[in-house]
Amino acid sequence: MNNLVQLSYALDTFYFLMCGALVMWMAAGFAMLEAGLVRSKNTVEILTKNVVLFAIACTLYLLCGYQIMYPGTNSGGVIPVLGTLLGAEHSVEAVLAGGDDAPYYSQRSDFFFQVVFVATAMSIVSGAVAERMKLWSFLLFAVFMTGFIYPVQGFWKWGGGFLDNHGFLDFAGSGVVHLAGASAALAGVLLLGPRKGKYGAKGTVNAIPGSNLPLATLGTFILWLGWFGFNGGSQLKLTGVENANAVAQIFVNTNAGAAGGVIAALIISRLLFGKADLTMVLNGALAGLVAITAEPSTPTALNATLIGALGGLLVVVSILALDKWRIDDPVGAISVHGVGGIWGLLAVPLTNAEATLSAQLLGIGTIFFWVFLTSVLVWGAIKITVGIRISEEEEYVGADVTECGVEAYPEFTEGVK
Fold first, then answer.
1. What ranges do the domains of the chain cover?
2. What integer pLDDT is reported at residue 282 of this predicted model?
3. What span, in angstroms and rounded, lies between the C-alpha atoms of 363 and 161?
4. Quick one: CATH architecture of 2-413?
5. How confident is the model at residue 417 (pLDDT cuts 50, 70, 90)?
6. Confidence class for position 84, pLDDT limits 50, 70, 90
7. Could you please report the per-residue DSSP string of 322-362?
8. Considering the entire predicted model, what is its pTM?
9. Where are the alpha helices (DSSP H) in 38-106?
10. Which of 213, 49, 76 is closest to 138 using CA atoms?
């Protein structure tokens, strides 16, 4: 029996770690997607942001974020117990004790899986504020977002706080990760303002094409792949027939949600624009993935496809609406992760009998207002002290030269601005 327990512990720990590695690979997906959707003169800067934000997220979550999010006390509470650093690893005796309270995977594997989630939330912010934000101001915000803002609302659901106590369901993070990231992004975008030349007089919207759509497409496929770890790892266990079947269903539904989002975005873009808009198709895939993330285990594969499809439709409508409201989001991150996340959370009661609409609305409202308001305060403080926006001249030249001192494609941009 002891050998079986140890084998189960080892397999579940390994599965957790490999799923975390897949989610870490999503950092490459965000970097490629964003680099492809911004202009070439801002490519190096956005790549720098994606690398450094990941390092900041890992460090701040290690120093304080993980213990804020998972204090192990104050069940059903609002204010988490503030802790620092990781606790002791599980002992062999605790694992072999058996029973429902015995640990079934390494605590370090849990930390690794959770830390790549917080990095994902911060990556969402990166694309939305692209092409006009100061690099160091963005990185300063990342410290507060990953070390405090994200962990507090994460505690309210996944750490056993009051949202969990009220029945709010969010299996893999449509709200805790994606809506949180989009809310922080929206706060930053509103204080930052649109890119120069994006909006003209009388409500005109000027398209600013990205520099490398093959790169953006590659980024989308990387994210699609990483999402199997994102949702599949959230089952927490693999061993046992029930868990293995659940993981398989989650993988199938995750893929189906993305496919549904692609098809819906393609159709609606064809109807609206008369053309197949690749950027809308890419965002449709991501919106479908975000939508199914709230509950990827209970829908049938067909239902998952429909949930993803509505996510793909909504993201196109949302991107167009934000432009009408002069909210400039170069990569569509607010629409993909915010609108897609809200829809995914609202869809949970459609397939999970334990979910209630009131609890889902409570979770949506709480996450949005907490992250948005605290982000406004942090962004505002940074704006007043060191500023958040590069100058008009620096924006014209490009953040690569002014913020990083190097160009991504020097052989193509020499003498051209």
1. 2-413
2. 98
3. 11
4. Orthogonal Bundle (1.10)
5. very low
6. low
7. HHHTT---TT-HIIIIIIHHHHHHHHHHHH-TT--HHHHHH
8. 0.95
9. 43-60, 66-69, 92-96
10. 49
